Amino acid sequence: MEMKIVHSEYGCEMAAIVRLQKLPEEKSADAQVFIKRCSACHAIPHPSRLNFHHWKDKIAVMKNKQMPVITAREKESVLSYIKTQSKKDVKTFNLRCGKCHIPPEAGELESEEWENLIVVLDGN
After folding, report:
1. Residue ranges per structural domain of the chain
2. Does the keyword Iron apply (predicted)?
3. What does the pLDDT look like over 15-36, one tens digit per residue?
């Protein structure tokens, strides 16, 4: 990890401790929009850390704050990248929670219920 000052073309300036990480398919057009528009003000987590619906909700919440507005096309690119790279269902549970928690049987929960459970356990 390292400390760096983040200067953004969108008016954000902050000191951040960041973990440099390689993002999947970071050369793709959608990944470049994700990097440019999200990391300009945030130390963004790896897209596989959260499920797609959680990311989508975060973007909706940011729209109502004093955040630089992203265009509809940029939002589509960001969501497309996240949808491709985000974790899903029991795989996410096993990756994020399974070391400490016993999962319900795979057939017991619907996809959205898995995602909600993961968000609660992850504290997000």
Report:
1. 22-86, 88-124
2. yes
3. 444 445 677 788 899 888 888 8
